[in-house]
Amino acid sequence: MPDRSFLDWPFFEQRHRDWADKLDTWCAKNLPVDHSDVDAACRDLVARLGAAGFLKPTALDTANPGPLDVRTLCLTRETLARHDGLADFAFAMQGLGTGAISLFGTQEQQQWLDKTRAGEAISAFALSEPRSGSDVANMDMSATRDGADYVLSGEKTWISNGGIADLYTVFARTGEAPGAKGISAFLVPADTPGLEVAERLDVIAPHPLARLAFNDVRVPASAMIGKPGDGFKIAMSVLDVFRSTVGAAALGFARRALDETLDRAGNRELFGAPLFDLQMVQGHIADMALDVDAAALLIYRAAWTKDMGAPRVTREAAMAKLFATDRAQQVIDKAVQIHGGDGVRRGHIVESLYREIRALRIYEGASDVQKVVIARQIK
């Protein structure tokens, strides 16, 4: 039985506890899903999460506008990840893909949000390129003004939901100034002529990922999100909201690994006694529990701080993301070790967790980059 005592921490209101309980009940009945066809599974997950109302926190409610609730986003990702990594992925991309539209979009652009919140459209966030991942300001993709339109040319890669998304938030160089100050953001529907899925990318924990080619993709000037040259600021604002949720997903994986380890240690015998009786195993479990609680404190501090009105939580979110993802890797590694041969058997839950966690230490800012971000914030 997973530890739920953290829900009594003062970071949360009763509505958060009610939401977590409702979602956990839904997950127990509906997850995990079959991952053999990840495209079909993600489409189905988005549709079912939307129909059940669990995608509502991912974007602005156009009928009742207000700030995104980061604590709810984190609680949702933690809960989904504990049950099924692909369900967490499906939820997370709905938020990340529409974050720029929620925060900076026009009323016309925000009409998409009713569809994404209902699970009727899938969104994606197209920022990374072959030469610019964590170094966003180094992007090559261009958006050239041509009369009433912009023409987008270049490539994006490692794009989550690439190939199944209905809309992409795309960042491109418009050239108002060098580096970060010359980037703008655009809303690009997936059926726009010239937008092609150049390659599907296969990774150790299969998710819908793709390299996208923009072959003179023409969009109206009204497709720009925010102002010309504001793209970098928009991207960082979106990551400021969603970066701590990556830590929350890692926390969900770590909690599941700890739960599985406690079950294994209590039921597996070694040298005539439960595995748990070995002091070395107790030491591992103590370390795992410590890492889980410490990660949760950093994650929900960052989320609470943002929800309380802080304009930026760059330092707090970077700390949460860095610590939670790195320590979750260690927690899961200990779980694999304690499970012995079963821990590396394909299809076992801790084996899948071992594959799932690794990417979280890379996307939305690699761990080493988070250290740079933190250092710059405290100098």
From TrEMBL:
UniProt keyword list: FAD, Flavoprotein, Oxidoreductase
Transport keyword on record: no
Broad class of enzyme this protein falls into: oxidoreductase
EC number: 1.-.-.-
Domain of life: Bacteria
Pfam assignment, any one: Acyl-CoA_dh_1
Cofactor(s) required for function per UniProt: FAD
Domain annotation Acyl-CoA oxidase/dehydrogenase middle: ranges: 124-217
GO MF terms, alphabetically ordered: oxidoreductase activity
InterPro entries: Acyl-CoA_Oxase/DH_mid-dom, Acyl-CoA_Oxase/DH_mid-dom_sf, AcylCo_DH-like_C, AcylCo_DH/oxidase_C, AcylCoA_DH/ox_N, AcylCoA_DH/ox_N_sf, AcylCoA_DH/oxidase_NM_dom_sf
Domain Acyl-CoA dehydrogenase/oxidase C-terminal: 229-378
Domain Acyl-CoA dehydrogenase/oxidase N-terminal: 15-120
Similarity-based family: Belongs to the acyl-CoA dehydrogenase family.
PANTHER family on file: ACYL-COA DEHYDROGENASE, BLR3437 PROTEIN
Name listed for the protein in its UniProt record: Acyl-CoA dehydrogenase family protein
